[in-house]
Amino acid sequence: MTSSEKNNNRDRIEPFTHFINKMDRLFSERPPKGMLQSLDDFFSSTKERSFPVDIHETNSEYILTATLPGIARSQISIDVLTQAVTITAKRDGRHKQLKTQGMFQKEVSVGNISRTISFPKPIDEAKVTARHRDGILTLHLPKIKGNRIEIN
To answer: Which of 31, 38, 61, 86 is the most buried (most CB within 10 A)?
Structure first.
């Protein structure tokens, strides 16, 4: 092997060795102060941009229940597609003041929260019904039944 071949071979191995050394150092050292807290804050804040949904399936329909406390019926929009539903709730920024033992608390909620739920079978869009009561949105999403074909 000539010296130029050795140098060329070393140049190919060097970046990989450098990468391995960096990764070893990353996992052997303590994370920078505050890094883990900022990751916790990031992942906990995603909960505020969504809302919990329960889905039950029967032979003829899907029943979707979304928990949307403090959001009025007029602030909710529902878009139904062939195999998905998108629920969007708008928070209008109303202020609430609560008086508890001489203390005041002010809550402000502004922005939209949205969630898209996919289903394995098509939905009959014309027969979907929605009901909103006490912060609970319930959707009844009838399934479209296809024709079963016999194989000869």
So the answer is: 61
